Amino acid sequence: MRQLIINKKTKNERIALLENGRLAEIWINDQGKETMVGNIYKGRVIRVLPGMEAAFVDFGEERNGYLHRNDLVSLDSANKGEITERRNVRHFISQGEEVIVQVVKDSNEYKGPKLSMNIEIKCPFFIYQPFGRGIYLSKKITSSNERKRLEILGKQLCSDNGGMIFRTAAEHVDNQNLAELFYELKERFERQAKSKQNPSLLLGYESFVEQIIAEVSPFGFDEIVVDDADTVTELKKTFGKYEPIPIRFYSNRENIFSYYAIEQELEKALKKVVWLKNGGFIVIEETEALNVIDVNTGKFSGKSAYRETVFQTNEEAAKEIVRQIRLRNLSGIILIDFIDMEEEDRGRILKLFERELEKDRIHTKIIGFTELNILQLTRKKIRNSLSELMLVPCPACGGTGRRKSTESVALALERKLLEFSGSDHEAILIEAEPDVCAFFQERHIKQLEKALNMKIFVLPADDVHGFAIRQSGTETEVVRRMTNMY
Q1: In angstroms, what is the C-alpha Rg of the chain?
Q2: How far is Cα 387 from Cα 26, in angstroms, rounded to an integer?
Q3: In a domain, 303, yes or no
Q4: How many CA atoms lie within 13 A of 163 on its CB side?
Q5: Do 282 and 276 touch, CB atoms closer than 8 A?
Q6: What is d(CA 285, CA 388) in angstroms, rounded to the nearest whole number?
Q7: Are 279 and 297 in a shared domain?
């Protein structure tokens, strides 16, 4: 059972993927840190640096983008190694040259956005590559007839130029619908590339929901539940003609993420320690350079030999670690310190890990075990991790720990207040951390008072962790409570 839960009722849009009722992935639209990943721009090369084998591109945003030589053009794999080894970046690009690029990684504190000229335009059924070569199909399409049909169709559509990658959802979608969508995307891209000035945005997603839907494809879900009626209508209009998808409107007063126990899972995903079902636990440490995960037996002592106890703990940990990597969106170098085990058991754990990783959409490369029994892997970074989105360095501990950001707490308060929609309460009294109080009053309070038809009083309190609702009822009752408190 795979469900996509869309929380669009507040400005802080969130989308969750549930697998058999458990949170597997989460996407958060951070208004202050909007992603550019997937956006396509027309830009100009401002510097070419052979020593870095890269170029820097002005594409109209605040910071210039970084374009590595390997991402300049699509190359046949047979030639790419030779060209990469023998020619430097100036053989392929020059200063002042106009280029079309796509953002593949957002900027951070130290680096600008990473760009690529290997453009990919995603839709639920396929990925169109204007400058690509070849037709590729998802490995999950197993029918030989379907694979042959799609391969023939792809060659017909890309007879002039370009390439395609058919996604699993393309299976059983008729040729006419696929062709119409292909020509629509192709014409839109070519029109924008020809008409737009330099630098400028050529193609970008109109909404956060549209961006995520294009990335994960809605046809892989048993159910999509949304708490916004307009979004439900739009999704049915967009995808209903291809295949009936169960898209349901959630109308309960309780926040949709609370109803599906996602809020509770999110809280756990921000902690370092994750307990396993058998009593063992894992510790996850995120640093700037790498991520380290340690496996411990904890309360689990097993019922047989020590070797079996160790293997069972490592087995349970391997499954949970893959889930946590996806949920927390860990990327870069990841080191997993399993409990010491025999060579044969290492192989069994490695195979299990590989099977679990098949659920992950993001490319992960397993390097293997070191002599110290540490499993090494790397995972491609596309977006910020969950902790980067929701936590900030804690000033009380000199930067050695993290706490929830002011904005995250304020948005949580907003979601809690929306559960009072339609109630008979005239007013509500809240105490919150001083910075949360200031942020909430500045950004949210007037709009919420109008939406809820309720007077909202938010008072600063140094002894409150996050926020606390102290009183709700008539305005007279709330004011009396305030008077008694102060």
Answers
A1: 25
A2: 12
A3: yes
A4: 15
A5: yes
A6: 13
A7: yes
Tell me the pLDDT band of 75, cut-offs 50, 70 and 90: very low
Phi-psi label, residue 220: left if phi above 0, alpha if psi -120 to 50, beta otherwise: alpha
Q: Is-contact 90 49, C-beta < 8 A?
A: no
CB 309 within 8 A of CB 353: no
Domain co-membership, 229 together with 137: no
What pairs with residue 294 in β-bridges?
A: 283, 337
For the CA atoms of 203, 204, 207, 213, the dihedral, rounded to the nearest 10 degrees, stands at: 90
Give the total number of structural domains in the chain: 5
Query: Residues 181, 127: one domain?
Result: yes
Structure tokens at 346: 């290492």
Q: What is the pLDDT of residues 377-435, one digit of tens each?
A: 999 887 888 988 888 776 655 555 677 888 888 888 888 888 888 888 899 999 998 98
Q: Spell out the residues 6+ positions from residue 271 whose beta carbon is closer than 8 angstroms to its own.
A: none
Tens of pLDDT along 31-63? 656 678 889 999 999 999 988 889 999 999 888
Residue 242, domain extent? 2-34+206-263
Q: Angle at the Cα of 454 (from 453 to 455), degrees rounded to 5?
A: 135
Enumerate residues 6+ apart whose C-beta is below 8 A from 292.
284, 285, 334, 335, 337
Confirm if 260 and 19 have CB atoms less than 8 A apart. Answer: no
Other CB atoms within 10 Å distance of the CB of residue 117: 18
Asked, for residue 183, whether it belongs to a domain, the answer is: yes
Report the b/e string of 462-479 with b at 16+ CB within 10 A. eebeebeebbbeeeeebe
